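Service request form, structural biology core

Requester: graduate student, group of Dr. S.
Request type: structure prediction, single chain
Budget code: on file
Notes: please return the result as structure tokens.

Sequence provided:
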Amino acid sequence: MDSKTFKGQLKRWNEDKGFGFISSENGKRDVFIHVSALKTMSRRPVVGDMISYQIHTDNDGKNRAVNAKIEGVAAARPSARRKNKNIQNKNNWFYQLFLLLLLISAGFFFYNNIIKEKYLPTTSSSSLTSTSKEELYEESYSCAGKVYCSEMTSCEEAKFYQRNCPGTKMDGDGDGVPCESQWCSW
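Core staff response, request fulfilled:
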């Protein structure tokens, strides 16, 4: 890259593609300029702007403008943009965490106030006798064609099926305790 600074007028500019050509001081060849060469400027160039630049020769031998500045236009403040972006990222993270906690809270509320009240007894479990616990579990079970221990989800369900449903095959040793090797092993 040539460290010498040149000056020329922007002759053509394609806003959609972000590039154009500068008429060089010596008038020989126009110099290609990409918008990235003007990254420190507060606005994009327009045809007629006077631009100071340095020349970089690409591997294919073509010259292009680098480290360019539009004369009479202030440089942008890059640090202000970065700070705003960092604040936005921090706020976005905080917002996502807030939504996650809100969803978890809603799930606990739904479980505690809807599921528990509808399907589980409201009496405290410490005041129940062992027979009343079984009676409460029986209210939530019904004979649905389950026959084997592998189809059960708890010892209480296995006991319910053994007492109330015909054709079960859960008491292999005939001692009256169903699913001893899976659910009721104590």
